[in-house]
Amino acid sequence: RYGTVTGAQTCALPISLLFSTAALTSSGAGAASLYGDSRRGVKFEYGSVGCKAIGNHIADVGFYGVYVSDSRECVVANNTLIRTGADTGQHAIVIGGQTATLSVNNVVEGNVISGCAGYGVCVNPNGGEASKLGIVIANNVINGTNNGIYLGSSQIVVNGNDVSSYGAGNNGIYALDRK
């Protein structure tokens, strides 16, 4: 159930890297670089457990950079995300999905995000409150995005992030507890 993908070079595909149920570890010297007109960067979905996207460079993707959808215990760390979401106003890193209780215990840490059309990091409230527990967003540098960090759920740890130069009238960190 756990696998490793390293050294992927993907350009101009409808979807760059999509991982479902099997875990991805992409880190170190052979980490993926994703450039071009790809629709998505990296997506962990439908019950994936323990996926890791570490040390990657994701630039100029039309949709989101990294999407953790209905997956748990995933780590998105030390990545560089530049100009993501231009086609749809989407976010650099999204934790979300549609099913309650699945997107839990995920970590977003040490990423550098710039030029994103939407939020730098978005915890999407879809699927209900219980679906987004135990999330840590820490030590990210977010600059030049439309919004910084959106928390659509409670019980999320946000610590040590550097958020600057977000859109006029928008938010550096926006928390909305939908209870």
Features:
mainly beta, disordered N terminus, 179 residues, 7-stranded parallel β-sheet
Summarize it.
This protein is mainly β. It has no helices and 20 strands.
Task: Provide a descriptive summary of the structure in words.
It is a single chain. By secondary structure, this protein is mainly β. 0% of the residues lie in helices and 39% in strands. It has no helices and 20 strands. It has strands spanning 9-11, 17-20, 25-26, 33-35, 42-45, 52-54, 57-59, 66-69, 75-77, 80-82, 93-96, 107-109, 112-114, 119-123, 135-138, 141-143, 147-151, 156-159, 162-164, 173-175. The protein has a 7-stranded parallel sheet, with no helix packed on it. It is globular and about 35 Å long. The model is unreliable at 1-36 (pLDDT under 50).
Q: For the largest sheet, list the strands in their spatial order.
A: 1-4-7-10-13-16-19
Q: Based on DSSP secondary structure assignment, what is the total number of beta strands?
A: 20
Helix share of residues?
A: under 10%
Mean residue pLDDT: 74
Low-confidence runs of at least 5 consecutive residues: 1-36
Specify Rg, calculated over alpha carbons.
15 Å
The major β-sheet equals:
7 strands, parallel
Principal-axes geometry comes out as globular
Tell me the span between the first and last alpha carbons. Answer: 35 Å
